[in-house]
# Entry
Amino acid sequence: MTGHLVPAAPAAAIGSPGFAVCFLPDDCRVRQMRRITAAYLRSRGLLPVLHTAQLVVSELVTNAIRHGRGEVGLTVAAGADGLRIEVSDDNPAPARLRPADEADECGRGLLLVAALATTWGVSPDGHTTWAVLPLPSGRP
# Structure
């Protein structure tokens, strides 16, 4: 059962124009979240960050689906500090960077996020992993 997308919070609740959705963990949701993010970025005229944002969304949503618990939440909002991407789940164990050997097929997601983001982190309760991407000059 893949469940339905449910708005998690109105855009005003996340502090700036953006979107938030909750969904049941399923691999098909990764592609769907990339598409929703792309539509949002196109609507805001933020094409320069589209591909980077889609990659960050892919990595964070995949981590939540594979290692999280319960529903997954995705929030994306453009603000004065940049494009903030947050992914949450019910697992209190925080996401963490880990070394990946050359032969490993996975384990590099957060390394990619850290390399692409201006800053990233995990909420104090461990439920939310977030990243901020730089926006083109003068764009919130």
Summary: The chain has one domain: 7-125.
